[in-house]
Write a structure and sequence with these properties.
- The protein starts with 5 loop residues before the first helix and ends in a 15-residue tail after the last helix.
- Helix 4 packs parallel to helix 10.
- It folds into 2 domains: about 140 residues, Aspartate Aminotransferase, domain 1 (Alpha-Beta Complex), CATH 3.90.1150.10; about 230 residues, Aspartate Aminotransferase, domain 2 (3-Layer(aba) Sandwich), CATH 3.40.640.10.
- The strands form 3 sheets. A 7-stranded mixed β-sheet has the order 2-8-7-6-5-3-4, with helices on both faces.
- It is globular and about 60 Å long.
- With about 400 residues, the protein is of the alpha/beta class.
Length: about 400
């Protein structure tokens, strides 16, 4: 009985686990690695949020089981955020559910609405849970273009007309992880019209809504579009907006039928996040928002330093308009290595860790994702290593390391 279980066989090695393994090996050898691989915010959670957690945890009543779909005050706070930020009215009772991060919410909604034989449309490349949450549930994922334009809309239309059975849902994620692309309201209008016409559910991942760098191009919500709530559920997260990644606090909002399905599945699986965490999340959403603007400015400065330095080193990487990532095309002379091989080489020679684009889908294999999760001093250290790496003849295999596309 050595054969892997069926659902496990459908999962490739998780990209972050591979990157972390390579980093651990290098650090075990005493090397100082600048880690720009995992999108793990390095700044502390704002003090007023931490203070509310400490206050709440002193009350022994909060130590009991919580509510799977989130305490009422938290669901009301999320509805308030949508009203202020997007002009969207949500019913906290029927159109909002709290999740253990957006990742858990996506995976559990996949379990709730899909079964073997179903087809889901997923941009390629995209964040792994977008595809594999449904694959774990037994469904199949069909790749569509990742750009929010006519190419994506045309691919969705073809998929609906030619797939048997017809796709049941499609994923969108703008600002995107890993590509950092933004979608416009005009794109969402066409998307919602198409989804309503073809009876497709839209599952929108809006985890990076507050990480934008142009006040004239602020990321919208799909739910802003009239009629979107008939077909859409949108996921948000506290992780990036408030530097709360380890707190595991997220939300799903939108279509009442989908929200009820997610809440029902969750009711069998968990009792919700620890109540003091939910209370602190209320303080984050309802409290002063200066910390969000400060976070945005911090990432803007890091982005500018990194992009300017990479350009000076000869690596032409686009400057992202949003998110905490650079989606960097592999330099031409290293492209034959693929993203995994190039990432290993960069780790070996420049002492810089990045995420291979292959981990986000086969169409990402000509890119690597670079996260803005180190301070400016460490970013400049990384740039020195990268500059030296690019200036040398480093286009061959990594010493002692097999270059493959695992």
């Amino acid at each position: 009985m050595t054969e892997e279980f069926h659902r496990i066989r459908r999962l490739p090695p998780y990209v972050f686990a591979e990157v972390n393994g390579a980093k651990a090996k290098a650090r075990g050898a005493g090397e100082d690695i600048v880690d720009l691989g995992m999108g793990n915010p390095d700044s502390p959670t704002p003090p007023h949020i931490v203070a509310k957690l400490v206050e709440a945890v002193q009350d022994p009543r909060t130590h009991r089981y919580s509510m799977s779909k989130g305490i009422p005050g938290l669901r009301k706070a999320l509805a308030g955020y949508y009203a202020r930020r997007f002009g969207v009215k949500l019913d906290p009772e029927t159109e909002v559910v709290a999740t253990l991060g957006s990742k858990e919410g996506l995976a559990n909604l996949a379990q709730a609405i899909s079964s073997p034989g179903d087809t889901i449309l997923v941009p390629n490349p995209s964040y792994p849970i977008h595809q594999f949450g449904f694959i774990i549930a037994g469904a199949s994922a069909r790749s569509i273009p990742y750009t929010p334009d006519d190419n994506m809309l045309s691919a969705i239309d073809r998929a609906v007309r030619h797939s048997v059975p017809k796709p049941t849902a499609l994923i969108v994620n703008f600002p995107s992880n890993p590509t950092a692309l933004l979608a416009s309201r005009e794109f969402y209008r066409e998307l919602v019209a198409m989804a309503r016409k073809h009876e497709l559910f839209i599952l929108s991942d809006l985890a990076y809504a507050e990480l934008y760098y142009d006040e004239n191009n602020i990321p919208p919500s799909v739910l802003e579009i009239p009629g979107a709530k008939e077909v859409t559920v949108e996921f948000t997260s506290m992780s990036k907006t408030y530097n709360m990644p380890g707190w595991r606090m997220g939300f799903a909002a939108g279509n009442p039928r989908l929200i009820a399905a997610l809440a029902r599945v969750k009711s069998y699986l968990d009792y919700g996040a620890f109540t003091p965490i939910q209370v602190a999340a209320v303080a984050a959403l309802n409290g002063p928002q200066d910390c969000v603007a400060e976070m945005r400015e911090l990432y803007r400065k890091r982005r500018d330093v990194l992009v300017k330095g990479l350009h000076a080193a000869g690596w032409q990487v686009p400057s992202p308009e949003a998110s905490m990532f650079l989606w960097a095309p592999i330099p031409d002379r290293f492209r034959h290595l693929g993203s995994v091989g190039f990432s290993k080489l960069l780790l070996e020679k420049a002492r810089v860790a990045v995420a291979p684009g292959l981990g986000f889908g086969e169409h990402g294999d000509e890119h690597v994702r670079i996260a803005l999760v180190e301070n400016e001093h460490r970013i400049r250290q990384a740039l020195r290593g990268i500059k030296g790496f690019l200036a040398a003849d480093n286009a061959g295999p990594v010493d002692g390391m097999e270059v493959d596309a695992a």
